[in-house]
Amino acid sequence: MTTPTLAKIALLLLASPLALAQNADRKLQSAALNGNQLEITTSDGKYLIKPYSQRIVETTFIPQGEAYDPTSHAVVLAPGKDSATLKDNGGKLEYAVAGGISVTLTKAPFRIAYAYKGKPLVMEKRGYAKKEGAEVIDFELDADEALYGAGARAVGMNRRGNRFTLYNKAHYGYDDRSELLNFTLPVAMSSKMYALHFDNAAIGHLDFDSKKDNTLAYETISGRKTYQVIAGDSWEDVVGSYTSLTGRQPLPPRWAFGNFASRFGYHSEQEARAVVKKFADEKIPLDAIVFDLYWFGKDIKGTMGNLAFDKDNFPTPKKMVADFSAQGVKTVLITEPFVLTSSSKWQDAVDSKALATDPTGAPARYDFYFGNTGLIDIYKKEGKDWFWNIYKGLRNDYGVAGWWGDLGEPEVHPSTVQHGTGTADQVHNTYGHDWARLIAEGYQKDFPNERPFILMRAGYSGSQRFGLIPWSGDVNRSWGGLKAQPEIAVQMGMQGLGYMHSDLGGFANAYLDDELYTRWLQYGVFQPVFRPHAQQEVPSEPVFREEATKALAREAIRLRYSMLPYNYTLGFDNSQQGLPLMRPMLYEEPQNEGARNLVSSYLWGHEFVVAPITEPGARRKEVYLPGTSPAWFDFNSGRRYPGGITAVVPVALDHIPVFVRAGAFIPMVAPVQSTREYSTRKLELHYYHDAAVLSGSGKLYDDDGATPDAYAKGKYEIVRFASAASAQQLVITLESEVGKQYQRHERSVALTVHNVAAKPAGVTLEGKRAKFGWDAKRQLLTVQVPATTRAASTVAVSLR
């Protein structure tokens, strides 16, 4: 952030009595429905209010003298056709969508308030105000509501009381607190189960009641005065509606759910080949290798922008990539949007008019850590085409499978820089977003049969629809750095970016702590992407750690691969419903005030509670187990705990505390060396029986792991699991649904039923007596369902 930018944002701190008086003088002049849109004229401008659905309504204010700007970087949903009504009740106007959100407009003094199904949500306080260099929209908060959102931060789960800068910026080496990181989203969410999305890209602030006067305020230097109110009966409703508004994340390629080899960085082809070989020799699963900036240059400085393999250190890159692919290992390359004046592509970028400019129209040049640079202008056709042709060439010529977009805030972005659609400050927060768009749209055009892998350090609201996979930046290798990660991930999942994850083990500083490394990887099993990455002084790859640590890492990674059926199904649900993979406890118990700030444990999908170990030498851990389930089972020991308690559980070095919901189905497989070998033809299905649960359900989603939008194309299978229990019998059914373009495969199922206290009197499969095993000590029942292509199977257990 440059000094002029800081000065602009500082203006937003100024209080303006004139602005308050101006708001008090706002008078309603007229109001009328135009189709479903409510059009209001006031003494100082015009309001447009329209519904997108029963749960989403949008409000835009157009000050006098300004024109309506319809362009949204975030919204993709078309306005809804739900019938809206307008009633004049004397001193108030009531605008409502049947069965959903309603808007009450008080005529004098003019004020706007929102409700959902009759329940008040939020109201404008002073509404819109214009100050010198700043524009503000503020809202009245209840005294006790908790606030979430504003992008990636580490400040505590309830973020009320903070004033957040909206300017994507890296924070190198942060620990347990960071108020400003790479994803600053203009989204506020409330414990009252509503969200406010401020639909404007320009820089500014989001104030979550920092002055303790019950005010939420959006502050910006310029742009649209548009926001959407999103409400629902549950957090699933709220986040589902928000992601329907801004777009859903496509299901990533299946290999993205595997293990990555990554560091800063691999200096040569020889070194990279040795790393991949070592993973195979150590029998530690691996699906991808990530190349940091040494693939295009020998030195950190002076080479950024080359974006071509260094021929000295990578003499046969095409063969290297092909050899890795033959082993089931994909190649991912780092790219940056900066082209140094010393790079081999500088002149070509200048001649192609691919760079952002200075006020004179010349390519903008400035210094930063890596050298004197220009910045690719992805907001004009020349820049987009130039950049995409580089990606296209690397994909076609070498078979590169994935892309890492680094420094995309952009890391240094002077306010004087001009882009094709506006100034640096106007497009700064959407640069990473539109960079991901460039790659996603390029794939749709040139590689329509491939799912792109797009790892990005910065983005904006709605970036998930381009397949952007975010990570939490250059976190310190410290216990504090680890402690910050669940909060960052669950908050970003609530804001639509469900694949937020961290550099496992931590990135910054040469700190060797085997216990910290182990705990971070064990946490990584239950986060969206498993990618250890760090500065090279202390290896990030488990194959280079001492034997005991390596063994623990191997165990964690093999568990990650065993859980692929469950995890991949979470990805499917995210793509269809916007459900985060990691979910905060308030998702489960929204009315529980104790859950509002709880982030020491979280939900992995619907069925798991996960409690990361974030302190050294821990021997016990307090874990809240939600009362929405009558019981929870220790994933490792099988011990039963009642729901609705805070359990004090023992901590072991070989795993972190993880619990499974009573009545849950967990589909698993034997671990494989890479997802290339993955198959659900030999499924291991775990059911967690409890006498208090009379019915349970679950599912497995499967496809080829590579076809874009396989579900919509009918190239999929969904296997649904169900249980029905009584005191005498437990019946488990499996039913397969296949798409029109998918052939059901023969599948065997090794069924394990947990918490069976007494040996069953008998088991039948398809109505015929079947063999079964029973482990009295562990209270496990096992039944083998032979391989079949039948669409349905039924196992009935006679309980004693």
UniProtKB/TrEMBL annotation:
The keyword Hydrolase applies. Keywords: Glycosidase, Hydrolase, Signal. Residues 683-755 form the DUF5110 domain. Residues 578-666 form the Glycosyl hydrolase family 31 C-terminal domain. InterPro entries: DUF5110, Gal_mutarotase_sf_dom, GH, Glyco_hydro_31_C, Glyco_hydro_31_N_dom, Glyco_hydro_31_TIM, Glyco_hydro_b, Glycosyl_Hydrolase_31. Residues 250-570 form the Glycoside hydrolase family 31 TIM barrel domain. It comes from the Bacteria. GO terms for molecular function: carbohydrate binding; hydrolase activity, hydrolyzing O-glycosyl compounds. Residues 1-21 form the signal peptide. It holds the Pfam family Glyco_hydro_31_2nd. One of its GO terms (biological process) is carbohydrate metabolic process. Residues 49-207 form the Glycoside hydrolase family 31 N-terminal domain. Belongs to the glycosyl hydrolase 31 family. This is DUF5110 domain-containing protein. It comes from Pseudoduganella aquatica. The lineage of its organism: Bacteria, Pseudomonadati, Pseudomonadota, Betaproteobacteria, Burkholderiales.
